[in-house]
Amino acid sequence: MSLRATPSSRPAEPVSDEIGQRPWLGVRFVCSGTYQRVYRSTDGTKYMARCTKCGKSINFRVGQGGSNQRFFDVSCS
After folding, report:
1. Is the pLDDT score of 17 beyond 80?
2. What is the value of pTM for the model shown?
């Protein structure tokens, strides 16, 4: 079983890189119906979210060619 993340139907919002504000993503896990605000790792390379129901985790890498979406729906099945 692999996790799949798709941009949610919410409008695109740029991820903020303002000084003093840590960038974040909004992640909704479909299997549990829960929402999480996930903050960028301290080394700035990824965002990591874990489903509260099944315990699976997903990493969103930071880098060139990525998405400008801030909200994602994740399917655990």
Report:
1. no
2. 0.74
